[in-house]
Amino acid sequence: MEIQEHIIDLPKRIYVGNGIIGKLKEYLLQLNVTGPLLTVTGPNVRKLVINDVIKGVAEVGDVEITEISDSSVDEVNRVEEIAKRVKPRFILGVGGGKVIDVSKYVAYKLNINFLSVPTAPSHDGITSPFASIKGLGKPVSVKAKTPFAIVADINVLSSAPRRLINAGIGDTIGKIVAVRDWRLAAKLTGEYYGDYTASLALLSAKHALNCTKIMNRDLKYSVRLLTEALISSGVAMGMAGSTRPASGSEHLFAHAVDLLAPNVAMHGELVGLGTILMAYIHGINWREIRKALERIGAPVKASELGIPAETVIKALTISHTIRPERYTILGDRGLTWSSAEKIARDTGVIE
Ligand SMILES: NC(=O)C1=CN([C@@H]2O[C@H](COP(=O)(O)OP(=O)(O)OC[C@H]3O[C@@H](n4cnc5c(N)ncnc54)[C@H](OP(=O)(O)O)[C@@H]3O)[C@@H](O)[C@H]2O)C=CC1
Ligand SMILES: O=C(CO)COP(=O)(O)O
Ligand SMILES: [Zn+2]
């Protein structure tokens, strides 16, 4: 059998620990990072951590800071223009998923090194070489730069609002369904199934499920576990060269809701709901997944997010059209309105 070339690009170093943002300068020197640097952040995050970041990077070289308001093509273009002027050797993304996505996408377009400094454990884009950019013509992620290094300060990550932490649990638990979809596709369509990367993604989901049992008593420890789970799910995507291990029908549902009702909920919250719904269709123990989300106070009903029942049903009926090339339990024809409504009602996602 001829083995096709497959290149795995992984981060050079991942720093995880309490209060380590204060050691940024030391890390940058260890990594031979030199200026100029471009730091991309968001308006809320800027108020919280940027002083620590600046202290670290200013000694390494000139630093330009820019804030993004969303992860749209317009913001990508604006940051790209700044990067062309500043000519940074490194782009630092300091923030949530949107900041990190814009940073790594601009870094990819201009072939500049990217450093990931997540401030919320809300998504597994922390490590992945993919970015979700609005306005590129598709709601799913596109190829982006693998982080050169990651600095994950657990003090910062665990002081993010609880809603963001819970969203990270939702994004990670989703891998239970994503891996089932992948296995199903391999059986039905002959698609390549990567056992190793699937196992890595599943391990992340297992950790996230465990986190829900300790989060209410030991937030910091569970955020550490969650962060590691998010990082390894991102590594799974990097090794697979695709988001396949981390994104199946539960993500299709999240993308569909986002298309119908933009910005009503966080990515991980929608993935959490999608996981309950798709686990039901797969015949997996969806009650256990719902219980885990309920235990931490993550939404399990669309009404908790202000999403009308009709939007949930409509989203279920169009989910299979979002990424037709990736086969899932939804098949090629998707769900009828009445079956979608039954699934949403049986699982309690709509009342
Ligand atoms: N590339 C990939 O593989 C993946 C990408 N994603 C993408 O990531 C995005 C979701 O990321 P998510 O983080 O949920 O959403 P956002 O990036 O929109 O962050 C949500 C909010 O949290 C704020 N925030 C971040 N950190 C802190 C903190 N420590 N304290 C207080 N507020 C904070 C942000 O502030 P501010 O306004 O300053 O930014 C923002 O207002 C989606 O676009 C999704 O598609 C998700 C999974 C994987
Ligand atoms: O969110 C992701 C993984 O958690 C990326 O998934 P998509 O490729 O479906 O955008
Ligand atoms: Zn996701």
TrEMBL record:
Question: Which pathway is it part of?
Answer: Membrane lipid metabolism; glycerophospholipid metabolism
Q: What's the superkingdom here?
A: Archaea
| Keywords, ordered alphabetically | Cytoplasm, Lipid biosynthesis, Lipid metabolism, Metal-binding, NAD, NADP, Oxidoreductase, Phospholipid biosynthesis, Phospholipid metabolism, Zinc
**Cofactor(s) listed in the protein's UniProt record:** Zn(2+)
Instruction: Quote the cofactor binding remark.
Output: Binds 1 zinc ion per subunit.
| UniProt main location, coarse | cytoplasm
| SUPFAM superfamilies to which the protein is assigned, alphabetical | Dehydroquinate synthase-like
Which EC main class describes this enzyme? oxidoreductase
| Binding positions (NAD(+)) | G97, K98, V99, I100, D101, T119, A120, P121, S122, S128
**Documented EC number(s):** 1.1.1.261
Swiss-Prot/TrEMBL GO biological process terms:
glycerophospholipid metabolic process; phospholipid biosynthetic process
Q: Binding positions for glycerol?
A: D124, D171, H251, H267
Which reaction does this chain catalyze?
sn-glycerol 1-phosphate + NADP(+) = dihydroxyacetone phosphate + NADPH + H(+); sn-glycerol 1-phosphate + NAD(+) = dihydroxyacetone phosphate + NADH + H(+)
NCBIfam families hit by this protein: PRK00843.1 (NF002022)
Give the record's family classification: Belongs to the glycerol-1-phosphate dehydrogenase family.
Subunit structure and binding partners: Homodimer.
| Task performed by this protein | Catalyzes the NAD(P)H-dependent reduction of dihydroxyacetonephosphate (DHAP or glycerone phosphate) to glycerol 1-phosphate (G1P). The G1P thus generated is used as the glycerophosphate backbone of phospholipids in the cellular membranes of Archaea.
**Name used for this protein in its record:** Glycerol-1-phosphate dehydrogenase [NAD(P)+]
Record organism: Metallosphaera yellowstonensis MK1
The gene designation is: egsA
